Amino acid sequence: MSIINLKDKNLYYIGGVVRDELLDRKSFDIDITYVGNAIEFAKTIPDAEIIQINEPFGTVRIKLAGQEIDIASTRCETYPQKGHLPVVGDIGCSLKEDILRRDFTINALAKSTLTGEIIDYTGGIDDIKTKTLKVLHDNSFIDDPTRIVRGLKFSVRFGFEFDEHTKKLQDNYLSNINYDMSYKRLKKELVETFNLNSWTAFEKFVNEGIYKLIAPCNFTLPEVNIENLITKYKPEILWIIYVGLLPDISNLPLTKQEKKIVDDFHSLIGKSTNSDFEIYKNFEGVNLESIIMFATVNPEIVKHYLDNLRNIKIEITGKDLQEIGIPPSSKYSEIFDYVLKEKLKNPALTKAQEIEIAKKYL
Ligand code: CTP
Questions:
Q1: How many Å apart are CA 109 and CA 102, to the nearest integer?
Q2: DSSP string of 139-165, one letter each residue
Q3: How far apart are the C-alpha atoms of 75 and 326, rounded to whole Å?
Q4: How far is the CA of 221 from the centre of ligand 1 (A)?
Q5: What is the mean pLDDT of residues 156-173?
Q6: What is the pLDDT of residue 85?
């Protein structure tokens, strides 16, 4: 565990960082909680510079011996509006109350910064040993349905499974979804889950009906597994390749680029692919992500394009055409297409041969 330069009997590592240490994995971020008011505590630390205070949330960022540390106050939370951000209740509550508001037992562990003792009120250590994901109470998914996707994320990342009761709670929730939820938070978890590029995760997502959290629609798992294509061709935005296959993701806040990827995928469907030239023209200028998505519709054509056609480029330019005495006109694009058709048949053509082909066209 990356250790902070600060010890106190009321100061604990909490959540993912304790879990990750037990799993011998690197943590993305280190959550630290002070039992009591963290802001007041920060003011008493000798030599600490207070960088930022968030009074309503009871959090504070300090700089100590060159290290920036975020400290949260223990707090309880309530979900007056189910599916949205919780409202912070009592700041400075007990460690136990702070822990019992959390999602899974494996994320409900605390470790003393002073003694290194691990506090485990919910059996999280055993659940890590048995690779089990268990919620802390029956309303967990009703309060915060993004936890269903978090469960999927942890199942992929660690190879853990829901216990029977948690799976039942998931099924119950999915048969009665409250669509008034924070789609920004849902998107964050979908991004973190599907950026792991796991077809197994997508299978679960679809077959268990988790996708219905996004919108009430029906979808069946495509027959073509695209995980290997993603590994081989290395597109930039992985999650959208999976989630964008669903018929309706309009509830998710997408970036311009993500939206274009999905739109381009839809516009590829139904296009004629009778020749290499048609295939080339369909995919030319289209995001790699959309092309890989299209592999769920026609994998052979996608592989043929990516392996054999994608890198074929004609060398001849408008300047070359002018030099052989053809004045600039709309005819140029016809000539380029004609040369391209020949080059797709014979990628070894040289520029001089392309020029001869252009002359022949005329
Ligand atoms: N948490 C929760 N419910 C959520 C999100 C978070 O109860 N919907 C709690 C969990 O105890 C979690 C902690 O807040 O461990 C910190 O959240 P986050 O940083 O998102 O989770 P990590 O467990 O640290 O996961 P990751 O490793 O993906 O950062």
A1: 10
A2: THHHH-THHHHHHHHHHHHH--EE-HH
A3: 76
A4: 29
A5: 98
A6: 84
Is this model's pTM higher than 0.85 or not?
A: yes
Mutate to test the pocket of ligand 1, among 2, 22, 101, 107 (most ligand atoms within 8 A of CB): 107
The pLDDT tens digits of the residues spanning 57-86 come to 999 999 998 888 899 999 998 888 888 888
Q: What is the pLDDT of residues 314-337, one digit of tens each?
A: 999 999 999 999 888 989 999 999
Burial of 35 (0-12, 13-18, 19+ CB in 10 A): buried
The CA distance from 102 to 100, in Å, is: 5
Using CA atoms, how far apart are residues 63 and 9, in angstroms rounded to an integer?
20
Closest C-alpha residue for ligand 1 atom 8: 147
Q: Is the CB of 16 under 6 A from ligand 1?
A: yes
Quick check: 301 and 229 in contact, CB under 8 A? no
